[in-house]
Design a protein that fits this description.
Order of helices and strands: HHHHHHHH
Shape: elongated
Helix content: 55-70%
Distance between the termini: 55 Å
Largest sheet: none
Number of domains: 2
Structural class: mainly alpha
Number of strands: 0
Number of helices: 8
Amino acid sequence: MGRGLPPAPAISMTVLQKELLSKLNKQESSSQRIARRTSILLLAETGESNSQIARDLSISLNTVRSWRSRWNTNYEKLLAYESGVETGELKLHIYHKHLLCFLSDIARRGAPKTFTFDQEEQIRALACSDPSEHNLPFNSWTEPLLVSKAIEKKIVLSISTSQVGRILKK
C-alpha cells in the first residue's frame, strides 16, 4: 500500500510557453532563481512528481508545490496573453516580459519604506562630509550626531540611530 498523496498531474503548457521557459532556463544571463523556477515548471510539465522534482533540484517540496500551484492559478492569464501574440495584438517580446514577471518574486507584505532614496543619499552625503563643515567640534561622525544633524537640516523629521546605521551600511 502506497504512502501519502498520489502524484500531482502534469501541468498544462503550450508549445510557446515550453519554448520560452526552455530558452530562459538555458540563458546564462538568467538568475539562479529564474533558472530554478523554469526547471520546476518544465519538469512538472513532463509529469514528474513533486517529490522527484524536489530531489532532482535539491529544493524543498513546498517550493515545488508553490510553483506548480502558481502556474496553475495563472495559466489562463498566460493563455490570454499568448492568444494576443497569435492574433498579432501583442508582440512576442512583450509576452516574454509577462512570463518573466510571472517568474519573479511576488511583492512581500510589510511596512512601506519610510525614507526616500533622496533622503538616504543626503544622509550618506552628510556622513561623508567633515563634521567641522557643520560647526561641530568633532573629527568624525557618530550615529547620534548624524541623527541630530539630519533632523536639524530637515533632511528627515525623525530617524533612529539604528536606521542611520542601516542606511550607511548599504
